Amino acid sequence: MINFAGFKLADRSRRYLASLAVLTIGVVAFAGPAQAAPLPLFPFLPLPMLQQPMPPAPQAQIAPQDDDAVVRSELPARLKRQVVNYTTREAQGTIVIDTANTYLYLVLGNGRAMRYGIGVGRDGFTWSGVQPITRKAEWPNWTPPAEMIARQPYLPRFMAGGPGNPLGARAMYLGGSIYRIHGTNAPATIGTRVSSGCIRLTNADVADLYSRVNVGTKVVVLPIDRRADSADRSRG
């Protein structure tokens, strides 16, 4: 005799198991792609745009400070950058080098000038005359001129620009001469006569001057025996 009740129970079990298997396969099929490629947060944007890396943030150029606070505190008061009364017949924007007093004046007009402390040429290396600024450079390379190498053959033939470079943070080249107005990595030499004829300022001061003048600026270098504050009187 056939047990129909047992047959029906077995049939129901098989159908239940079959349904459970189909459901499991569907869940796996749905979960597999989701794990491999999650849905984008902003599906309305093109996929290449989402995958494109962000460009690096531009690096701001750091203005040379030359440890400005320390250097300025160590400089004698007379050599610190300052606006002073200054009478001259030179036009506004002219640079006047007072070699005797180790000052550089940038004429502002109306009887005023910005005065900077400088280092100048040592004995036998001072010079005078009028030259225009013909080139400006930030963190310039240094190629010692042949005259300097002849005197000091141990000098490098080339030195890349940077904090250790003798020209410092900025340089302004004077005419077709070998002379420059430049910064220095030895700020203690400001106010002294140690160079081979170039005019040196602290890195902070040369950066300030550099920002105020252009190519073509007139530079008047007074002789060692002539003070800037008597220049006009000697012309009269």
UniProtKB/TrEMBL annotation:
A GO term, aspect molecular function: peptidoglycan L,D-transpeptidase activity
Q: Keyword Membrane, does the record have it?
A: no
Task: Name the SUPFAM superfamilies on file.
Answer: L,D-transpeptidase catalytic domain-like
Q: Outline the extent of the L,D-TPase catalytic domain.
A: 93-222
Q: Which pathway is this protein assigned to?
A: Cell wall biogenesis; peptidoglycan biosynthesis
Report the superkingdom from the record.
Bacteria
Question: In this record, what's one Pfam family?
Answer: YkuD
* Active-site residues per Swiss-Prot or TrEMBL entry: H182, C198
Say yes or no: keyword Glycosyltransferase present.
yes
Its GO CC terms are:
extracellular region
Q: Which GO terms describe its biological process?
A: cell wall organization; peptidoglycan-protein cross-linking; regulation of cell shape
Q: Which UniProt keywords apply?
A: Cell shape, Cell wall biogenesis/degradation, Glycosyltransferase, Hydrolase, Peptidoglycan synthesis, Transferase
| Entry similarity comment | Belongs to the YkuD family.
Quote the protein name from its UniProt record: ErfK/YbiS/YcfS/YnhG
Organism expressing this protein natively: Rhodopseudomonas palustris (strain BisB18)
